[in-house]
Amino acid sequence: MYPYLGRYVEVPAGGAVFDGGVTVLPRPRLPLPHRGDALISAAGLLGGVLLWALGLHTQGGPLGGAWVLVPVAALSLVELVRRSAPMTGLLIGTLALVGDQLTVGSVATIAMYTDIVYAAVLYGSPAAARRVPWGTAVFTVIVTVGTLNWLRTPEALLLGVVAGAVTVGPAFTGLLVRNHRDAAEAARLRAEQTALLAEMDRTQAVTAERARMARELHDMVANHLSAIAIHSTAALSLHDARTTETALAVIRENSVAGLAEMRRLIGLLRDAGDDQEPSPAPTLRALDSLLERARTNGASSGLTFSLADRRGEEAALPAPVEMAAYRVVQESLTNALKHAARGAVTVGLERSRQALIVEVVSPYGDRPGPRAPGSGAGLVGMRERVALLEGAFEAGPVTADDDGTKIWRVRAELPVEERSGTP
Prior knowledge:
By secondary structure, this protein is an alpha+beta fold. It contains ten helices and nine strands.
């Protein structure tokens, strides 16, 4: 709030108020001195007054008496801005030190000036931190050479030593402390960046592991649960004893198989001890049993399943490729049990020099009878598995070449080279 025309006007910080064409500018606020700077200033002023009261002086200048307190008071004021305005303080302090040479001199003035030089290097700009130490060195050399030419006595070297102690010593001390401070700050920033990168890596690793676990859980259990859902719906909707008995047999078989798969997954998640060997990953050799189970589960829906393996006598596939191919076929058969119309489901395998091609074709369209609901997670999981191996994946309805009917085709192209990804 600022008084204006007999009333108070509230002025936003850093802004201006326009009232009837008159601009009211905010008053500049001087920064409060640091507590340490205030203590140094008070100590220097009291020390200078005490030395003057005791009659302790450093020289015999033309101005005696209380004139010695003028440089002391000026440098004590400069101490208040040694952090906020170090170069301005250095300039004013240098003028005060020159003025002190006209008086009887005070040790307090010299002591405060050394602190001003130190603060100029420590708190000043990087350019000032580079220039001030070398400037004081040049000043000391000039003083030493000048006094030698003027006095022509070896004692003149003492003036050079004193000048160096007052200027060069504090300047290079401030430079050393500043370098250590900057090194500590850089180390702290590197530590924070390292901790941040480690946290990002941990988060990414946890996310990737959660996605892998979700794919494994879906691929292992979804097939069995889909068959259970279809046959339980059939048993509830068709009041036939033979149909119900057949459905219950299929439900029990898939329940036992699903439970075994769940136990295997739980064993892996619990990280069994070294005395237990890990369960083997599924390979393409198990496709026959997978198709046989699909035939049993899909018989009531009018689905038939066949395998067309056109790989030939090629070299063995990398383990990640075999596992990804098996999971793609498994999930494609699960989707066929859920959604495919009556007809033939064909699984095709083909090996080229660069990739293994997996293709699953099923009838597309509505079908009578029970169906299991789907969430689309299977397609996402298949796409993720293929992407981890840097392969190509596509799924959707297409038109058959022979009779023009609609079919649902899942096609995955898996590179046969070893990859770093884990399907």
